[in-house]
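seq:
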Amino acid sequence: MAIDFTGTSVIVTGGAKGIGRGICLGFANAGAGVLCADVDDAAGTELATTFEGAGEIRFTGQITPECTLVRYRLSLKRLITRRLYMGIADGQVEADDQVIYTGKDLRVGLFSEDSEVSAK
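struct:
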């Protein structure tokens, strides 16, 4: 059974090689917009060239050991409160005050510090 992720966006960290690459390819082939974050720029660029209309992969920078400050920002647009609390948000990642990744309409699971995650 194929799962359709058309209209969704995902961020995959460490997505240029190995398991992360497989996750990027799987989501993209299922129609998702994929934002791949990886420190290996060459592998990321190679991955981006393998897609033809199967979602989005963008590289505008990278997080390296030399970065002194990394920020993840989410702008919540909608909150869904059911069994799982989920937000629909636009997001971005900044490295040393430079925006290097952006995503629109991301599905974000919301938890508090004292939330318990259980498999029921």
